[in-house]
């Protein structure tokens, strides 16, 4: 049985999460809100409890977890004490949607780090998450979704998909950002972007210096070894085949071919009056798209159609993270209307 703890954020009190703290201390798993997405966590100091995370999600064991902390003291207890760190940058970015990869301290479980010499750490900026960590201890947690499926950004979906799989779910409504934390590897100089997220590179470079990245960070390939979540395996995907138009012009050219068995995912500016569309936000504020992206993928699956079409975003600011998630969620990218029609015919021929 999963215990559901209902919390009204306007009247939140620390004593409301005591049962969640007790569950963690007893070796259980808890789904909890952060400012980015919901996490599915266990105490980072309890390897047997952390194994339950992989079972609940159906997650490969070579995909490491992120250790969530509430203080710099906890950071130093999980990171190699012989290393030097950009403390000024961390103090400016934390608490917030930034995860850093550092060399791990001795005694950190291989279950948490997938046997790697490094550990991913972040300090979430959410009062419930902060109190949960402060009261129970550092929590190892990936996003609270079934492996490969869209991340959970609303507790209603957490209950829908994870009730019966975990010990406790904290029901605290939607998260603020709706897209996961940015991950940078600060064991390297310059720092390397491993996964774009709610902090844009443009936000981080003034305090961490130049940040480099490759195709994996853009969602154009997979790493051979997953140093952090989001680098390996298909991620964030709806069950519906999601087709990405390479450019917005191609998207517009395809729109008139979309039929009753397809859905369009688009900003309000790009919808063009299409009747079967899920509006994912506005181009005037791409953080609105980030907030709605994963919930839109879940809504798409509830429509039970064959295919969906989505347009791209400029890879700057939060648009970088959007394109990482969309590429990893997409079945195929099409470069023209003809390319789309060929793909559509091929897919439907296989179905029939």
TrEMBL record:
It is an enzyme of class 2 (transferase). L-threonine binds at residues 36, 68, 122, 141, 181. One of its GO terms (molecular function) is L-threonylcarbamoyladenylate synthase. Its EC number is 2.7.7.87. The keyword Lipoprotein does not apply. Its main location: cytoplasm. One of its GO terms (biological process) is tRNA processing. Residues 14-199 form the YrdC-like domain. Transmembrane segments: none annotated. It catalyses: L-threonine + hydrogencarbonate + ATP = L-threonylcarbamoyladenylate + diphosphate + H2O. Keywords: ATP-binding, Cytoplasm, Nucleotide-binding, Nucleotidyltransferase, Transferase, tRNA processing. GO terms for cellular component: cytoplasm. SUPFAM superfamilies: YrdC/RibB (SSF55821). It is found in: Cytoplasm. InterPro entries: DHBP_synth_RibB-like_a/b_dom, Sua5-like_dom, Sua5/YwlC_C, Sua5_C, T(6)A37_SUA5, TC-AMP_synthase_SUA5. Required for the formation of a threonylcarbamoyl group on adenosine at position 37 (t(6)A37) in tRNAs that read codons beginning with adenine. Belongs to the SUA5 family. This is Threonylcarbamoyl-AMP synthase.
